[in-house]
Amino acid sequence: MSLHSKSAIATGDGNFVVDHVNLSDPKSDEVLVKIKAAGLCHTDHDSLHWGKPIVMGHEGAGIVQKIGAQVKNVAVGDSVILNWATPCRSCFQCKEGNEHICENNSPVVAGANGYTEGHAYLKGTIWKNEPIERSFNIGTLSEYALVKASAVVKNPSDKLSFPAASIISCGVMTGYGSVVNSAKVKENSSVVVLGTGGVGLSVIQGAKINKASKIIAIDINEHRLQMAQIFGATHLLKADKKDKGLLEAAEKVRQMTDGRGADYAFECTAVPELGAAPLAMVRNAGTAVQVSGIEQEIVIDMNLFEWDKIYINPLYGGCNPERDFPKIVSHYESGILKLDEMITRTYALENLQQAFDDMLAGRNAKGVILFD
Q1: Full DSSP string of 146-199
Q2: Is the pTM of this model over 0.70?
Q3: How far is the CA of 225 from the CAs of 39, 222, 361, in angstroms?
């Protein structure tokens, strides 16, 4: 049968429309999800410029409506959290335990944000009589999403709302996982977080969960710094826009860390000019982490690597959704990880432009689109 689904569709020329797509029943390894909430991040705005029509959105939560004959991980009626890094579980990286960088299915690694085998069958989603791809394999800015079974994880909690569940899908996972899975922050260590939007706040929470003793939040936005304190930052440092590479801020960080620099620094700004900034923040043999996904060419002064510093660029916080999503939910249920408080404002799909405007202006930690 064909199902009409109101969706936000990037038209490929920098614009989007809210229109209906037609969905078919899931194939044997696919799931049809009724989306209840979809989180927003800068990547969703970036998708306006990918040069092709695409159903937007890559954070979401909802209820399973239909399943294919071979699906075993969820049942109809289950509350689920969506996951865009759909693993094949048979390639080299999946066997190495790196499902988030699957060589066959990842929309980033294998498909450069395009179609891969991790995507539900293309003819299952039709717009204007033509198949249309779903952003990052899932396309959550839509009333319904047809996805692979590997793109859904059952929500283990009856306390977790759909809006709170939706932001786990990317922003929370990326920040939390960069701390816990990728950098493996040690107890009693010092951590610097550059940028305190949704991802930065999740880094702060991950550092708190890993029992870092000093968590220094840096931002140019005073309001966001105050939020950082609520989420676990122990020290706040307001940056100056004129501080090139945040070198002056780095000197203040050294003063706050016994003259050495921090053990770890996480860049969460997505500003290319700050790609090297975490290197300036860490001590000799410290670890700098580029969390925000900067892909532009940047120039790095190699003196910043002195001495024995490590610089890593993890994708999606090393996510293994079957392992990590339940852990995040468990931390939420125990009260040591905040999700509801991260959602600044909710919107209807028809108000997506306002949601983008608020996000780009830095008014939201996280904005969420709600569906009936």
Answers
A1: EEEGGGEEE---SS--HHHHHGGGTHHHHHHHIIIIII-PPTT-EEEEE--SHH
A2: yes
A3: 21, 5, 15
Strand ranges, E, within 74-157: 79-82, 125-127, 130-131, 133-134, 144-148, 152-154
User: Among residues 316, 35, 337, 325, which one has the least CA distance to residue 205?
Assistant: 337
Compute the radius of gyration of the chain from its Cα atoms. 20
Cα–Cα distance between 15 and 255 in angstroms, integer?
Answer: 46
Q: Name the token pair of 87.
A: 């693993």
Residue 29 per-residue DSSP state: T
**pLDDT tens figures, 38-87:** 999 999 999 999 999 999 999 999 999 999 999 999 999 999 999 999 99
Dihedral (CA of 20, 83, 106, 170) sign: positive
Write out the two tokens for 257.
């860390």
- Classified as helix, coil or strand, 141 is coil
